[in-house]
Amino acid sequence: MRVIAGSHRGRRLQGPHGTALRPTSDRVREALFSILGNRLPDSRVLDLFAGTGAIGIEALSRGAAHVTAVESQAESLKLLRQNVAECGMNTLVTVQARTVKQFLTRPELWSGPYDIVFADPPYDLAYKLEDIFQTVHATLTPADAWLVVEHASKSTLPDRLGLATFRKHYQYGDTALSIYSFPAEAIV
């Protein structure tokens, strides 16, 4: 794994051993950041199910102002912290070592509001996102924020995830990105 573009372009990131963790592929990360385009500079990003931190690090490399990374798995947390430190981004990343549901139900932990929320749950848990996002308070995001969910292309997500409304779907082989907005807005 490597950072694709921006100030840390080409920087190698530590990846998982085995198949327990499924990092977002370079192809899907490149597509994601192309979709985000001008929304990214100076944005505050919430990376849910952060894994190795590759999405958050890429966001910072491309101009995001701050990332809050939420991860509960010990191996993933170790890789996340190592990658953030090796990139010299400790002051730009807040790591929350807890489950996504625990984080989302505790507004005092938030460093938001967040302009971009990225969620990459284990593919077998994507169906639970509707329950997870039901607890989200409106102060998590400003009115024009986006929620991007990475999921298996064969799975279908609901039209609403809490306050967020589905807008667009992109497919890349076995992986898909679904874009939601808070509240409804047109995606160009």
Automatic annotation (TrEMBL):
Gene3D superfamilies assigned to the protein according to its UniProt record, in alphabetical order: Vaccinia Virus protein VP39
Coiled coil spans: none
Residues covered by region (Disordered): 1-21
GO biological process assignments: rRNA methylation
Keyword line: Methyltransferase, Transferase
UniProt cross-references to CDD domains, sorted A to Z: AdoMet_MTases
GO molecular function terms listed in the Swiss-Prot or TrEMBL record: methyltransferase activity; nucleic acid binding
Highest rank taxon of the organism: Bacteria
Enzyme Commission number(s): 2.1.1.-
UniProt-listed Pfam families: Cons_hypoth95
Name of this chain's protein: Putative Ribosomal RNA small subunit methyltransferase D
Annotated organism of origin: Nitrospira lenta
